[in-house]
Amino acid sequence: MIRLTDQPFEPGSLLTGFSKGRTETGAIASFTGLARAEAGSTTTLTLEAYPGFTERAIQAIADQARTRFALQDLLILHRIGDIAPGEAIVFVATAAPHRRAAFEACDFLMDYLKSRAPFWKKETGPDGPRWIEPRDQDHADIARWDTQGPETKP
Amino acid sequence: MARVLLFGRLADLAGWREREIEGDSLFALKTRLAEDNEALGEALSGPGVQVALDQEIVRGDAPVTARAEVAFLPPMSGG
Asked: How big, in percent rounded to 5, are the helix, strand and coil portions of chain B?
């Protein structure tokens, strides 16, 4: 399931819900991204999406991840709007029969969300607002998946 | 009239997010936007800016019908 929300969410209860009743799943991996402020500053993040377009773009990559890593299920929850330091921005969970696929799919989905998903991120700190664009590291992270083979061994 | 949407820094630069603009192609719309706001015109042609026509990414020029939705998308960053 893929969902965008402008409300704070609790990653622990999402993971509990996602893990429930899975008799054929051997591995669940999850990732929680938090809004981070430099020490002492009052930074706020604002995430903008393109309604409809953003969900469809994430759905397309989620379908790709399902096939590539033979996932049984996945969950992506992404905040939009204003986000205070310490609040969760993104939660990704993946379910697979074995751990490697679950770990790798989670990693793959996060690399995609960081630099290719249709979100725009503004940081408002002591020096005023600043739009954040993907760093070289983010591009390098996603490029890893273009060169690796599509198969993951369980 | 196409419905033009701006996102991220492009919207801040223009001072608006959504506007009806006259133009029968993407090129015509960009030209009109650049006439109104030179800095925006430059930014629209800047590196990493993609265009979505009726929510599909298109490259280069394309005809724009009445009631089309044209979105200018600066480099994306989530998570």
From this structure: 30, 30, 40
Angstrom distances, CA of residue A133 to CA of A36, A127, B5, B26, B76:
16, 17, 19, 25, 6
**Structural domain tally of chain B?**
1
- Looking at the DSSP bridge assignments, the partners of residue A90 are A33, A78
In a domain, A65, yes or no: yes
On whether any CB of chain B is under 8 Å from the CB of A87, the answer is no
Q: Which two tokens stand for residue A121?
A: 């991120």
In a domain, A154, yes or no: no
Angle at A66 between CA A136 and CA A103, to 5 degrees: 60
Domain count, chain A: 1
- Which residues neighbour A16 within 8 Å (Cβ) at sequence distance 6 or greater? none
When CB atoms are compared, the residue of A50, A122, A133 closest to B71 is A50
Domain that holds residue B9: 2-73
Per-residue model confidence as pLDDT tens digits over A82-102: 999 999 999 999 999 999 999
Tell me what ipTM this predicted complex has: 0.92
